[in-house]
Design brief:
This protein is an alpha/beta fold. It has 2 domains: 236 residues, 3-Layer(aba) Sandwich (Rossmann fold), CATH 3.40.50.2000; 165 residues, Rossmann fold, CATH 3.40.50. The chain contains 16 helices and 13 strands. It has a 7-stranded parallel β-sheet with strand order 3-2-1-4-5-6-7, with helices on both faces. The chain has a 6-stranded parallel β-sheet with strand order 10-9-8-11-12-13, sandwiched between helices. α10 crosses α14. The radius of gyration is 22 Å and the shape is globular. Its EC number is 2.4.1.250.
Length: 413
């Protein structure tokens, strides 16, 4: 079947780009729909050199897909500028004029309208959670297949875990994020999106296992994300003279298990471990310093500088409660860091126990402390583990990711 697939996503994350390139490379792309797309010599490309618009550089796409790209920029530009000028009223969860929910809803309606006008040449629509409801509904009217990419655990299971966290660690409840406060209307949209889907795509067994029973009879494509090969560097010799630097990267909340990591560090009670935390604050910095006074806080920075920081650390730890598949794990491994992660990160396959890192249960500061202490007592093994972590991460490529999804879609059709 010579499939022509409409791909849509409001922001164009790295995993979306992997699918985009895979469909295009395999001659399966009908069109790509996003909010803001920046191409060489375009207006957005030219103004991205001004500090106010530097975030547009994150929306760069290859000129190869320019003729197949349709963009709907206004709502997303409003959101980007609202964040830049800190207009919190316009970003308020589900209510703000330019909140992410409004951006996705407007985007979804625009794509649905396109499907209505161009349905004769479209075999399938491929879109993502919160971007899909109207697009799928319109596609169904014309007998077009609906492919649903779920980038994080299904909302029902994820919400259940976060509610449990708010009870287990009430001091950290405010850091759990907006998902725990989603409205019934937003939940209903998510349910209908999954109901309308013909194929479900996910990047980890954790996401696949989070699906409700009624959806598990649908065809499910499971393909892990790729690791950017160009960022891999040679592993560095490990110093045993300095404290062991343990790195956490991500939004600073209990959804990513930061409270458990803080507790683990206090249990170690040693000056030979330095915890380095890079991420966006979800509470005032004073809150975090009260929980663990001596951690090193690093502010959010450009991606290349995140990689530089990774290369100054020894071990990466992400004890998440709810994820999809955290890309940062493979990025850390590509920079030579063995990992300590939970199965809920979606990266269980990244761990070759004792060689590329360790898997620990969720909600277990004791196990996190045990593994950090193992690295502390076995510093002589870090160099070898660093090399193995890099080698294992390099096995996952974005080209492989995109091609696998394209092939599996064809098989399911």
């Amino acid at each position: 079947m010579n499939s022509k697939i409409l791909l849509s996503h409001s922001t164009g994350n790295p995993n979306v780009r992997g699918v985009l390139e895979g469909l295009h490379r395999n001659g399966m792309l009908h069109s790509f729909h996003t909010s803001v797309a920046c191409f060489p010599d375009s207006l957005f490309d030219k103004i991205s050199f001004f500090p106010l618009f530097k975030d547009l550089k994150k929306r760069n796409f290859s000129s190869d897909i320019r003729s197949k790209t349709i963009s709907y920029p206004y709502m997303e530009l409003g959101r980007m500028l609202s964040r830049k000028f800190n207009i919190s009223k316009w970003l308020e969860h589900e209510k703000g004029k330019f909140c992410i929910e409004q951006v996705c809803h407007s985007f979804d309606l625009n794509v649905a309208n396109y499907v209505c006008k161009h349905h004769k040449n479209i075999s399938a629509v491929y879109t993502y959670e919160d971007n899909a409801f109207n697009t799928f509904k319109q596609a169904k009217e014309f007998g077009i297949k609906c492919i649903y990419d779920l980038p994080i655990a299904y909302w029902e299971y994820g919400t259940q875990l976060m509610i449990e966290e708010s009870i287990r660690l009430p001091r950290w409840a405010a850091t759990l994020g907006g998902g725990i406060n989603d409205s019934d209307a937003k939940h209903e949209r998510k349910i209908k999106e999954l109901e309308l889907s013909d194929i479900v795509v996910c990047a980890s067994s954790f996401v696949k296992d989070s699906l409700p029973l009624w959806a598990k009879n649908k065809p499910i494509i499971e393909v892990p994300f790729g690791t950017p090969s160009e960022i891999c560097v040679s592993a560095k010799p490990i110093s045993t003279e300095e404290p062991l630097r343990v790195l956490f990267v991500g939004s600073m909340g209990q959804r990513k298990g930061l409270g458990d990591l803080f507790k683990a560090i206090t249990m170690l009670d040693t000056k030979n471990v330095e915890l380095v935390v890079l991420g966006s604050l979800l509470a005032p910095i004073e809150f975090y310093k009260k929980q663990l006074p001596n951690f090193t806080y690093e502010q959010v920075r450009p991606h290349c500088q995140v990689l530089e920081l990774m290369r100054t650390c020894d071990v990466f730890c992400l004890p998440s409660i709810v994820e999809g598949r955290a890309l940062v794990m493979q990025e850390a491994m590509s920079q030579g860091l063995p990992i300590i992660i939970t199965p809920n990160t979606g990266g269980e396959d990244l761990v070759i126990e004792g060689e590329t890192g360790f898997l620990v249960p969720i909600r277990s500061p004791e196990k996190i402390a045990e593994k950090i202490n193992w690295f502390l007592e076995n510093r002589n093994q870090l160099y070898g583990m660093s090399i193995k972590a890099q080698q294992h991460a390099e096995k996952y490529t974005w080209e492989q990711y995109g091609n696998s999804i394209a092939d599996l879609i064809q098989e399911n059709f």
